[in-house]
Sequence to fold (694 residues):
Amino acid sequence: MKKKKNLKKKKTSNISIINKFLAVIVIIIGIFMLLGAGFFLFIYLNAPEFNTDLLYKQESSNIFDSKGELIATIGSEKRQIVTYNELPQVLIDAIIATEDSRFFEHEGIDLPRFLKASYGYFKGTNAGGASTLTMQVSKNTFTSTEAEGLDGIIRKFTDIYMSIFKIEKDYSKEEIIEFYVNAPYLGGGNYGVQMASKTYFGKDVSNLNLIEAAIIAGMFQAPGEYDPYVNPEKTNARKNEVINLMLRHGYITENEAKEAKEKDISTVIKAQTKSVNKYQGFIDTVVQEVIDRTGNNPYEVSMDIYSTMVKSKQDVINNFYAKYKFKDKKVQVGIGMINNKTGAIIAVGAGRFKNSEMSLNYATQISRHPGSTAKPLFDYGPGIEYKNWSTYTPFIDKAVRYTGGGVMHNVDNRYQGFLTLEQCLVRSRNTCALQAFQSISNSKINKFVTTLGITPEYLGNTKYINEAHSIGGFTGVSPVQLAGAYQAFGNGGYYTEPHSITKIVYKNSNEEIVEEFNFEKVKAMKDTTAYMIAYMLKKVTSSSVKVKGTDLSTKTGTSSYDSKTLKRLGLSSRNVIQDAWTVTFSPDYSVAIWYGYDKLTKKTYNTSSHAWSERVKIQREIVNKVMEKNSRFKRPSGIVAAKVQVGTNPPLLSSSGSTYLFVKGTQPRKRAKVASPATTTAKQPISASSSLNN
Fold:
């Protein structure tokens, strides 16, 4: 009996546990249902109204200069509305195949595609987008492009609600396609497929062929990236993706796909003829920075942008491009000008023949070998900073080997024997630069240059910088980047990230949203280091480059092609060079100028003698007109000057000797020793660079 009672109790106990478990499950389900209901109620209450008038109203963005004066209005709509019947079937097929293959079957949401994308999202993998054409109509005008976190989830479900209950419910599929093709920005200042077709192909949209339709269909997701005038190679690759999708979904045959992919977009794209704002180079710099920092394109999102452009300085560069007599129409010049005290980009030379929006920006988007302009950054700056070198520190200009083999050469293939650090830098001797690089901790060099905004090329997955960097043998830097690095030499050792914007005010929100940008000033080096570099480089500045009462310091640089490249083109001259640089800085501004060609051909190349003369002329044309008068470098208290008998090691004081600068506490006394740099062993073999830099 007792056993039966215990069995009964146990059975009752098990039932009780199951009931409690089921009750917990029911409660959890109830909580999730309440949360879900609350979430969807939130979506319902906060979803915007679908107003077709808003589809075609894009307020322009304004860009202001450093004084708050308007310099450009961009994004004002150039649009012509077309009906569904005016669209060629090939364009409809291309859009459907690319963006929403089941568009004519679903009612606003493609559930299988949505579930697949959601599963991939939670797994942390990219399973493809889940937005239908209808959802994209909602996203592009009525919600946002937010894709991350809770805001991204809310935006996605708002688009679903809008698609099912406010668009598909009241409009036909044909009308939705009209919304889709007429509303968006499609690059080059164009809104809608009709203006894009006229701009890129010179024809009405109704006359598009397969290749042209594929180009436009491919632009909807990223009009800036796939603009055929800005990125023709990416546009061509995207066109081929669209063609493959059309083939996959049965809209074209294999032969049609093969022929379309074999033709480059250059066969159909119309040459640009429109005029642009005279400040287009700076405008492009601003627009790209806004995109990079915020993810919002000023051509698509209405905003007021307050920039750092100083109109008087920008006018100097614009006039230079217009009036200077260049050797031919192919040679290019990129210029970056930085305010040393703030890091503000105050003017740019974005390139000659700037006749389109967002075309290649030679001030910010090229990446070229810096040549000998790298020497203060990778060699002598770190040596002074970390090893207390003086401007006298002795070097021997002689044959020097890279750690991994190969001999460093000077540009004149000669050696000058005993030289001071100042002589090495001013005369730009490559062998001394390599010795300096080899004698400094690689990690300290890395710290020094990266703090100045320079990105070296590392060996593999390490942070190790190869020895070719000692003479600028790496790819590379832009004029703005190089001017940004040199700003620290002009202002006592402080670096601020180069920037062209200070504030953005968004205009299409219910309440004013202001985004201000504050850029941190970083102590990149000691004031003694900055001053010594500036002091020595004053001796490089040409006597024809001068501004009344102002200290001007200069570093030049060139890089050469490897012998195989020259031989392949039949250019045997050792004087053929690749990049020619001039960096000039005062206490106020830094100006970096690059001179060269996009590509080396039998007709487009520079010689070292030509580059030498041209860069001084260009430097004079720019620097003499943009630098402030009566501005001097101030010697820090941590520096002492001493007269030294040149050619002695250790240095000997001499009343008749030349004056050199020393960090206080390291200056020579009678018979005091100042050790010359000792070569250290690199971590792994390095190949010698083919560049000869000066």
In short: The first strand starts at residue 61 and ends at 64. The CA atoms of residues 382 and 445 lie 6 Å apart. Residues 672-692 have pLDDT under 50 and may be disordered.
